Amino acid sequence: MSEQNPISLQSAMQRIEELETKLTFQDHSIDELNHALIQQQNDINKLRRIVENVVSQVERMGDSNSDGGKVELPPHY
Fold first, then answer.
1. What is the DSSP string of 36-53?
2. Given CA atoms 9, 10, 16, 20 in this order, what sign does their dihedral have?
3. Is 73 left (phi over 0), alpha (psi -120 to 50) or beta?
4. pLDDT tens across 18-64, in order?
5. For residues 66 and 77, what is the distance between their CA atoms, to the nearest angstrom?
6. What pLDDT does 72 receive?
């Protein structure tokens, strides 16, 4: 009976070490994923600002080219 205790203790210690290794790997993976998510959100925010600027420029171009809805026919008509 005393022989089983050292073996099971050694087995338990080995399992604890494996769990600690997995936990460390998971913590590292979570940190990397968090960094990637932050970078993606920054990219999305930047692209959103670019699209808003383009929409604003297009709207201004439409306003400056507006002739009040009057369509002029070419001279040959």
1. HHHHHHHHHHHHHHHHHH
2. positive
3. beta
4. 999 999 999 999 999 999 999 999 999 999 999 999 999 999 998 77
5. 22
6. 75
